[in-house]
Structures are given as C-alpha cells and as structure tokens.
Amino acid sequence: MKIELNDYDRHYLSGGFKYDPKWGRGFLIRCTSLSNGSGTLLDVGCGDGYWSHTLSEWYTVRAEDIVLGGVVAGAAKENSEVDFYYGDSLAFSTTHDVVFARAITDLVRVPDDIFIACLEGLIARALRRFVFVTYTRQPYGSLCGSDDDASYYHDPKVIEEIFSPYGRSAVVLKENYIIATIDL
After folding, report:
1. How far is CA 26 from the centre of its chain?
2. Strand duo 151-152 + 143-144: pairing
3. Which of 116, 134, 139, 156 is the most buried (most CB within 10 A)?
4. Which ranges of the chain would DSSP assign to H, the alpha helix?
5. Nearest-5° angle of CA 38, CA 39, CA 42?
6. pLDDT digits 0-9 by tens, 132-173
7. Under a CB-based contact definition with an 8 Å cutoff, are residues 95 and 184 in contact?
8. Cα gap 37→95, rounded to integer Å
9. Which pLDDT does position 149 carry in this prediction?
C-alpha cells in the first residue's frame, strides 16, 4: 500500500503545533466543566491528541481525525491511554457520554448547511453532552487566515441560537474562546 502524506500529516509528524500541556489542562479546568466529568469521551478532530491526552485524565477517550499524521503522532506518545482512529468522524457510529469538538474544520466556518450537518452528526454520537470549543474575536462573522486555511470568528449569540434547539445549551465566551455545550 502506498501512503501519500499531505502538509497536515507532515506538520503533525514533525512535532505539530507544540501547544503547552499545562495551559491546555488549566484552560479546561478554568473554562469548562469537563474536569468534573467521567465516562467516555470522543475527541473529534483530535489532531495529534493534544486535548485527548489531557482529557484522558478524567475520561476514557476515543480520538478521531481525518489526518493520518496526527493520529499516528498522537498514538505514538508515551503512556497514551487514548484509543486513536483514523477516518471521518461522521462515518463512525460509536456513541460516547461526551463528544468534544475543538475547532474542527466543518464547525469553524460560516454556519451553513455543512455546519448544521456536521453538528447534527456529532450530536447523534453524544449520549449526555456535546462540547464545542473554538477561538473567536471581533469582528464576529469574519474570516481570518488564508483562503485555504481560514477560520471563521463565530458570534457567541449566533452559536447559542443554532445550538438551543438540540437540547439545554449554554454558550460562554472566555479568554477569546467560545465554549458551547448541549446537554442531551
């Protein structure tokens, strides 16, 4: 089998984003209630497992990504208790107590039909809670980055309107991150 690597694969295999694990753990404790949880958690769009490994302190974690290099890099980390899977999270059907989506491509875009289809597909995999975390800043409703790698600055009020029909939702803005939860 021939394996062809793309730029994201190479990025993760050469060290990834180099996030500070202490910051990430602190962020989860300060800004979410995830550190108070237990059970199973799905980390959608896990990349190299940065958030997955931190969340495994409190949950049994399954991590999924469409970037092979990220999944390989995450699974190769020492003392990993996370189960990594390569593929499209919308094609898998496992369910988990919590589904955690940190800035995955189909949710860091203008809220359109693709956004809604992704959201609904991920909510269907959550038994108790769906958690969406993404960076944002004003002016809301604008794109940042290049056309090929742009992120959308969501308005917390718009996210609340979109999420509220799916269950009891809460949307907060902390440290320039939207933390949106849906309790099912």
Report:
1. 17
2. antiparallel
3. 134
4. 7-13, 21-31, 50-55, 68-75, 113-123, 156-163
5. 110
6. 999 999 999 998 876 666 789 999 999 999 999 999 999 999
7. no
8. 16
9. 65
Could you give the count of Cα atoms lying within 13 Å of 25 in the half-sphere of its Cβ? 8
SS3 57: coil
Single-letter residue type at 39: G
Contact between residue 19 and residue 47 where contact means Cβ atoms under 8 Å apart: no
> What would the two tokens of residue 163 be?
């999420």
Task: Classify residue 182 as exposed, middle or buried by CB count within 10 Å of its CB (0-12, 13-18, 19+).
Answer: buried
What does the alpha-carbon distance between residue 44 and residue 6 come to, in Å, rounded to a whole number? Answer: 20
Both tokens of 40, joined, read: 């199973």
Torsion over CA: 28, 156, 140, 131 (sign): positive
Write the CB contacts of 97 (distance below 8 Å, at least 6 apart in sequence). Answer: 37, 38, 39, 40, 41, 59, 126, 127, 128, 129
What letter would DSSP give residue 76? T
SS3 22: helix
Whole-angstrom Cα distance, residue 10 to residue 33?
33
The model's pTM is 0.94
Number of residues that make up the chain: 184
Half-sphere exposure of 66 (CA within 13 A, CB side): 8
- For tokens 């094609």, what's the residue? 91
